[in-house]
Amino acid sequence: MRINWKLRLKNRATLSTLIGLVAAIIYQILGWFGIIPKVPITDLLDAVSVILEALALLGIIVDPTTQGVSDSERAMQYVIPNKPEVPAGYFENAIREGGEDDG
Question: Which of 2, 7, 5, 1 is nearest to 65 (CA)?
């Protein structure tokens, strides 16, 4: 499985999932040792969500609209997400022809 991590980490959903996972693991390990953090995990995740929203608002993180768990060879070459131009009438033609063009 090959993944363009530099691009994936610009995705808010990926970042929030990874941060949530790391926080849950840390809180679980602390629990094993009887350590109870002063900040509940829900408050921590709420703060992370606010930070990610602010970064998205500033355009620092974006939605690269990647699908699946692996990226294509083409996606592995991207430095920024691909934003192809959609020709006029594209969606109308796709509906009329019964599907979308993969190209």
Answer: 7
